[in-house]
Amino acid sequence: MRVLLVDDETEFVTTLAERLTIRGFKVDYAIRAHDALALAENNIYDVAVLDMKMPGTGGLELKGLLEKLQKDLRFIFLTGHGSEADYVAGSSASAGYLVKPVNIDILIAKMNEAVQI
Amino acid sequence: MGGTPAARLSRHPYVLEAVMSILNQLKPEFWHNSESSTGPFRQMFNFRRIWKMAVLLTSLVTLLPLIFITTIDYNYTQKSIESENLLRTLRIGSNAKRSISFFLSERLSALSFIVRDNSLAELRETKKLNAILINLRDSFKGFVDLGVIDHNGVQQNYVGPYSLEGKDYSQQPWFKEISEKGLHVSEVFLGFRNVPHLVIAVKYSLADDSFYVLRAAIDTTRFNELLGTLELSARGDAFLINRDGIIQTPTLFHDKFFEKMPYTVPEYSDHTEIREERNTAGEDLIICSAYITDSPYILIIVKKKDELMKPWRATRVKLIGFLVVSITVILLAILGFSTYMVNNMYLLDQRRLSTLHEMEYSNKLASIGRLAAGVAHEINNPLAIINEKAGLIKDIFTYTNTCTQNSRIIEQLDSVLASVERCGTITKRLLSFARHIDSAIETIRIGDVITEVLDFLHKEAEYRNITVNIDVADKIPEFQSDRGKLQQIFLNIINNAFAAMSVGGRLDISVRREEESGLVAKITDNGCGMTESDLGKIFEPFFSTKTKVGGTGLGLSITYGLIQELGGKINVTSRLGEGTTFTVTLPFHPPQKSAEK
Fold this sequence. Notes:
The structure holds 2 protein chains of 2 kinds. By secondary structure, chain A is an alpha/beta fold. Helices cover 48% and strands 21% of the residues of chain A. The two termini of chain A are 14 Å apart. Chain B has 15 helices and 17 strands. In chain B, strands 1, 2, 3, 4, 5 and 6 form a 6-stranded antiparallel sheet that branches. In chain B, strands 12-14-15-17-16 form a 5-stranded mixed sheet, with helices on one face. In chain B, a hairpin with a 3-residue loop joins β14 (506-514) and β15. At the A-B interface, α1 of A face α9 and α10 of B.
């Protein structure tokens, strides 16, 4: 499964990428929206795991942009803030929604679930 | 059968206690709580002072005029009764004087008529004189004898019980007096028969410058009867004295005749006089005196002031009784009314305070909620990094088999991951505490909600042998509310109850309909209960008695917030070691504000 990770927390995103790689996923990561878009232009992904709140382009906005590039891409949102607005927006478009810190097994389950839809 | 003194003494404190408890019950609510505390929630007024002022002022304004008027009336009535007494005595005195004067002048006139109607020769005839005496006795009572005395003072003829014919009166003072004045009324004296009587005499001048005198003795019984018939109220005494103060007629207070009366002899006056005097026994007397014209007598009427004022004393008792009753009624009314008013003010103020408290509490919870959300958000990101880093380390060890011999490293990593998860749980709860979920209103049957919640806890109850009784009244209607919030509310409360109970506990859940407010749910456990100081803090965020066993102290804060969102109320009562009861009141129609949200 090809995964695109986008989060402004470098430490978080690199470590998560490494852990997923260990588990056999093909993972690319970006810490800024435009890096993510650049990656998406050149590569095909099954799932994008996006942080909800990022400086500049936020998770929801980025989702829109990525959807334009790859129609079949599935999304899972991560957030440090369990606010309801995020929840509603996140869950509306057939996307998963997880609150940090996240259990990696649950994340993987969500990703599998998302891909199967 | 009153028991020993010791037993009576031992009963005494109970009586005192009973009286004190009645007094305490009578004390209005504000009495104990009127000390104004400081700070923003202090009471607006010092109710005890207001009450005192109200009672004092109204009492002064109402009682002073009453007392003033009553005092004036008291004095006025007393004075008028006194002067009325004086006037009445004076009138009686004056009437009595007239009667006595008339008595004497009537008899003197009779004698005058006789000496004019009969010649001296006729009067010298004993038979004739006797006939006259008989006529006199028939017409005017009291005549004892009759005598004719010539100008030499020798009695020429006499009819009566004694033989006084030939008696010479020429040397007696009265004979000298009558020759000058023409008539005579003697003082009372005891005659030969030792019977008190007086003598009257008239002079008849003849053409040859000589004269003779008709003299009659009169029994004073008639006189005494006259004085006795005076309407003297209050044991008044009426009697005659001569000019020297010697008593002439019987008196009530002095049985002996011819003694000097113990009062001052009045000075001569034409009119009836009245004065006050104090007797030897120290009693105040009213003494009325009148000189009887053409006689040596002074009429004296003595009344005891004390006796006279007896009717006044009865009036006075009535007046004072009226005053006392009036004051008591007025005071009771003032006390009752002031207490009622001030207590109502107090209750209103209390309501104001409790509203302020509630507002402050809500605000506090809201601020803490916002703070908590911020903190949770900030912590979640570094927590996520720790989680991933530790996870990666574990992954490295696990996937590369680098460290299979040293299982302790994996244990430590698992412990780190578990702690991170625990932190995550806390921050998630913090976030949900602050969360304002959109109301997903649906039709609710409260019994179903409670059953759903208990399904979560079913296993635990079974495991710990806790009996759960659910009693939901039939007549509770379905109503519109948020199922998720209701579930969370009941889950939190029931969870707390479970935590408080030991093995074999008992949980009672009852739901009743209340006409006004909607439904009332009571969740009662027989667990460990809590102290009063804990009770005051249980809805505050981060207050927990279970911190050692994983409590976050947010459960009841969240519950409080949720119930407020639904427009309800939560109350808790608890006794340490006996159990706790949570009472949740929910309206059937949630407030408009929450519905709009």
